[in-house]
Amino acid sequence: MKTISLSKPWLDTTAYPFDNKFLQLASGTMHYIDEGKGETILFVHGTPTWSFLYRDLIKKLSNKYRCIAIDHLGFGLSEKSASFPGTPEWHSNNLSEFIKRLDLKDITLVVHDFGGPIGLSAGINAPDRIKRVVLYNSWLWATDQEKEIQRIDKIVNSWLGRFLYLNLNFSPRVLLKKGFENKQFLPKNIHQQYIKPFPTKKSRMSLLNLAKALAGSSKWYEEQWGQINLLANKQWLIIWGIRDQFITSKYLRKWQDRIPDAKTIEVDSGHFIQEEKPEESMIAIDNFMT
Predict the structure, then answer these.
(1) How many beta carbons lie within 10 A of that of residue 9, not counting itself?
(2) Cα(157)–Cα(149) distance, rounded to whole angstroms?
(3) CB 158: neighbour CB atoms within 10 A?
(4) What's the number of CA atoms in the CB half-sphere (13 Å) around residue 82?
(5) Residues 270, 152, 44: CA angle, nearest 5 degrees
(6) Domain count, the chain
(7) Sheet-wide strand order for 235-241
């Protein structure tokens, strides 16, 4: 692992004032941040975000805990390649390698969006390393029978979907914004931090690959769901944005049925709670860990 000074004119180092670290994995060079000391919190993002999503939580929580946040390969400041497979299965394998290489233990695993299946699968792969789970709006079961997901899958696998994702950078420009209940929490300068990591069509393949995997990896999600018992006995905190228009409270109820001992906090927020309600989110995690 190494610390590197980045030359990214677009990167807001006031909002994101962390040392940039890199680890060479078998599949590529992964960027991450590693702040503070104490029990380990590992933050796992979804799409089209990166570790920047957790910046406000890390600024506060790193005063008491060791906070590690990765950028999946193809996202944020990590290496990008149009040839990456980019499936959640592949990302999960990369995360498993990262956890082993840093020999992380007693992890509080924080997951959101696609980071749910990616991070939880890595936890299932090494349950002895996981102490707690913090789950934001996400899923871990078959998706291919959901009508809305079938509709999305049809679009993203069409010429139109490819054009929108690769030519117009549709995911961070448009879909990210739709995930906010209150758009005032996504000012232009912050929105740019999610748009700028994907400057070219090739760099946007990671976005398209995960969009295709929403239904395309359905069987794999279901396989992980069948093994969730390996993590079910951990301490769980569910922080759920009740205004999320896509990953709705229907998903929350499925989690609560499967993990009945989980503590649940419902937040008046859209999909990106970390941006809309960072203070509330940080306090919930801190209280959960103490």
Answers:
(1) 6
(2) 12
(3) 11
(4) 6
(5) 50
(6) 1
(7) 2-3, 21-24, 29-35, 66-70, 40-44, 107-111, 130-135, 235-241, 263-267
Q: Look-up: residue for tokens 């980045």?
A: 6
C-alpha–C-alpha distance, residues 289 and 281, integer Å: 13
Q: Write the CATH number for 111.
A: 3.40.50.1820
Domain span at residue 141?
2-289
Structure tokens at 64: 């008491």
What's the one-letter identity of residue 116? Answer: G
Instruction: Specify the residue for token string 């990302």.
Output: 91
Residue by residue, what is the 3-state secondary structure of 36-71?
CCCCEEEEECCCCCCHHHHHHHHHHHCCCCEEEEEC
- Per-residue pLDDT 10s for the chain (290 aa) are 554 556 689 999 999 999 999 999 999 999 999 999 999 999 999 999 999 999 999 999 999 999 999 999 999 999 999 999 999 999 999 999 999 999 999 999 999 999 999 999 999 999 999 999 999 999 999 999 999 999 999 999 999 999 999 999 999 999 999 999 999 999 999 999 999 999 999 999 999 999 999 999 999 999 999 999 999 999 999 999 999 999 999 999 999 999 999 999 999 999 999 999 999 999 999 999 99
